[in-house]
Design brief:
Blueprint (H helix, E strand, L loop, with lengths): L4 E2 L2 E11 L2 E10 L4 E9 L6 E6 L2 E8 L9 E7 L5 H14 L2
Antiparallel strand pairs: 1-7, 2-3, 3-4, 4-5, 5-6, 6-7
Length: 103
Amino acid sequence: MQGYLTVDWEQIDIRSGIFKQYTVQGVKYQNKRGETTWHTTTWPEGGNPMHDFWVSDGDFRAFSIHHSYGLTNENRLQIGEVIDRIDTGERSAIMAALASWEK
């Protein structure tokens, strides 16, 4: 995964559901090489805090979207460093969601 702004990923699926007391929303992306990954947004039953992750091969990375990048119509995805410190319940909920959606 790259740690810079990229336009190489195409959105191919959108899912959402409640898994292990977390709401998980996911957008699946595929790049030109056929690799797939998920952008997930999660929050617990209470509603806060919300977290966004780029999840690929079990790695959770920092992630953000830059809309109208450079005052153009392009959106750029910024994929950051691996995040090791994630609540185990939240990680488990995300992995359960992805397993369900990949069936």
